[in-house]
Amino acid sequence: MKVVLFGATGMVGQGALRECLLDDRVERVLTVGRTATGTQHPKVTELVPEDLGDLSPHAEELAEYDACFFCLGVSSAGMPAEEYERITYALTLSVARTYAQARPNATFLYVSGAGTDSTERGRVRWARVKGATENALARLPLDAYAFRPGFIQPQHGITSKTPLYRGIYRVTTPLFPLLQRFPAMFITTEVLGRAMISVAADGYPRRILESRDLNDVGRRDRPGGSPGPR
């Protein structure tokens, strides 16, 4: 399986990339973003396009990849509504449309979030925007899945690029062993990355995977059925 990965420098993307490099089912990874990851690995090719919102010049290259892991995202905290919608909705759909044209019916995994509003009518802005993004992706000629993880624990030296989140992680780290007992609300970067590979390889009965689903798939995908450092 060949994977194109967006957002590989972010916390979720770093976790996905790590698992791809460890998994024999993943033959090649193309990372796409505004900056290179600097990863030196035989599986990895990096692409830093001039305009991330217009990947049409790279359509032929994208067509070589079986699945897209879209882990690129931003926090809505303190961000103007228009800018958040541009990044979360418009950019995601631009990438997805180009990929769908280049590789029709390929797998597209969109990392959304717990609490996303599929009705697009709720009071929470970020939830409406993510719901609209999920719904629009579902209408494209792609095998699209929406991943809705809850609280994500970074592992293996991975850190968040968002200062607010880094502060939250420093405070909550002692609680991680307790939080792991609540798979409906909590997941690790390792298990989330494993779930992405598993769904891309084997599919899933539902198009929207909540945190409990992701934990079930990601943990089952590991030898022995439980997460742990490697």
Q: Can you describe what's shown?
A:
A seven-stranded parallel sheet has the order 3-2-1-4-5-6-9, with helices on both faces. It has a two-stranded parallel ribbon with strand order 7-8. The chain is α/β, with parallel strands linked by helices. It has eight helices and nine strands. Helix 1 links the parallel strand 1 and strand 2. The longest helix is centred in the middle third of the chain and has 22 residues.
Overview features:
8 helices; 230 residues; two-stranded parallel sheet; 39% helix; 9 strands; alpha/beta
Brief overview:
By secondary structure, the protein is of the alpha/beta class. Helices cover 39% and strands 17% of the residues. Helix 3 (81-102) links the parallel strand 4 and strand 5 (107-111).
Rounded to the nearest angstrom, the radius of gyration is 17 Å
Model regions low in confidence, pLDDT < 50 over at least 5 residues: 223-230
Biggest sheet: strand arrangement = 3-2-1-4-5-6-9
Beta-strand percentage range: 15-25%
Specify the biggest β-sheet: 7 strands, parallel
Q: What share of residues is helical? A: 25-40%
Q: What is the total tally of β strands?
A: 9
Order of helices and strands: EHEEHEHEHEEHHEHEH
Number of helices: 8
